[in-house]
Every structure is written in C-alpha cells, then in structure tokens.
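re: that chain from earlier
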Amino acid sequence: MKDYLVKATTYNGMVRAYAASSTNTVEEARRRQDTWATASAALGRTITITAMMGAMMKGDDSLTVKIEGGGPVGAIVADGNPEGKVRGYVSNPHVDFDLNAKGKLDVARAVGTEGNLSVVKDLGLKDYFTGQVPIVSGEIGEDFTYYFANSEQIPSAVGAGVLVNPDHTILASGGFIVQVMPGAGEEIITRLEEKIQTFPAISKLIREGNSPEQILERLFGDEEVNVHEHLPITFECKCSKERVQQAIIGLGSEEIQQMIDEDHGAEATCHFCNEVYQFSEQELETLKQSAKA
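^ sequence. v structure.
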C-alpha cells in the first residue's frame, strides 16, 4: 500500500479528522538515519503526525516540529508541508530498549519527559508562528494532544504508532488526528473520548491492512465519514549541493580559506537524509571569490 493520508469530517461537520498510513515513509527515514527500533518508533510517530499537520496548511506554508525531552534519543526534528512531503531525524539514532510494561517499544524512555515540544509554522509572513508546550508523557501522541489543546486551543486526540521488524525495518506505521470544532456539544465529545479510549493500536490496524478511510470508519462507528481529500505522503529532503554552497559562502572568505589550508576541501552531511556533499579545493576557491563579492 502506498503511503497517503485522508482529510475528513463527521458528526455533521462538528469533527475534523485526519488518518495516515506512513509505513514506507518511515522506513525511508529509518534507512537514511540507520535508527534502531525504539528510535525508529519515536521518529516514525513524529514524522507521521508532522505529515498530518502539514496537510492542515495551505500553499507554500510549512512547519517544523522539534521534540526535546532530555532522553537518550536527543532531539527529534521533522518538517512537513501541504503537499505531504515530510522529512525528519533524531540526534542519536542508535537507541533501543526492552519493551515497556505494556509490551510496547519504550518510546517515553527514549524521548524523556524533561523538556518541550515546539512547532514553528512558516506562513509566508514576516514573522513565524511558534507554539511550545512542555512534554507530558514522551509518548509523542499524547504530547501533540496537549500541544493542540494548549497552544492552538483546539480540543484534539492524536494517535500514532510504529511496529518494527526484528531486522529493524518498519513493519507498519500510521496515525490519526481528531479535532472538535467550536459548537460541538458535550455529547459528541463524550462519545469520541469513549471511542478513542478503547480504540486498537493504529499500527496494528495498519499491519492488518486497514486503509486510512477504514481506520476513520472504525473510529467513528455508525457516524457518516465524509472524506474530502486524499494526499500522498513521501519522505523528501530539501537539501542540495547548491544550498550547501550558499551556506559555505555565508561563512565568509576567511573561513573558506581555512578549509582550503587545513582540509584541502570540504564535506557536508545533511542531518535529515544523510546525503554527503563534497567540495574540492578548486570548488572552494570559486566559493571564496563569491564570498568576497
């Protein structure tokens, strides 16, 4: 199944919902980052939720999510946009633990609970919109639920899950976001809470072959689900040799000369995709001239 997400409404438009299947995208991130199982789950949950949040935006808007919980995995960073393109990395990819008391990957232990979740949105305006909340559990889904309620004042339920094979490849990954619109009655909120509390693990549903549409139909039961859009999800990085060249030029001619004298070239690796860009002495000389201009 190709990765994609759906945007939908239910309860006569009083509830907005997103559901995503992201197995291939998370596997691509795992492959590029060489993450171990618990780190893969933490990164995969973050990427999946970021993809759905990106789908909430329009035009050339974009957002960056950063989770810093003080745990051994370090910072988790992900970017998303309205086209379903997403990328992400963890500071320490080689983190894995025994399963937790519930028999699941111990993401909370890897992420930590002493820190913040921040979301920076580039809406094409002069200033960025930044929201930040303390991490409440380190399980990531619960932390985004807290973010929506406190930073964006939207009552929400966020779920994401990742299953990892014994060889560390990704078996299944997916997520959902359910948001209650202004004017929704207490009865709707109560019914949703009851449904979500007893809902199966979404990674298990993805592994069983359920589509994003089927996940929402199962979540909302007898309520009619109106799907408004399908959006493919892909891992795509924005890096390029030209971007790295501009970054080197920005260092200034003196620092570029130091690279030439000491290293006789330069090498840069992208955090997100681990692509390596190499520059010869001659290329650095050209960049140095541009820096002087």
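The longest strand covers residues 170-180.
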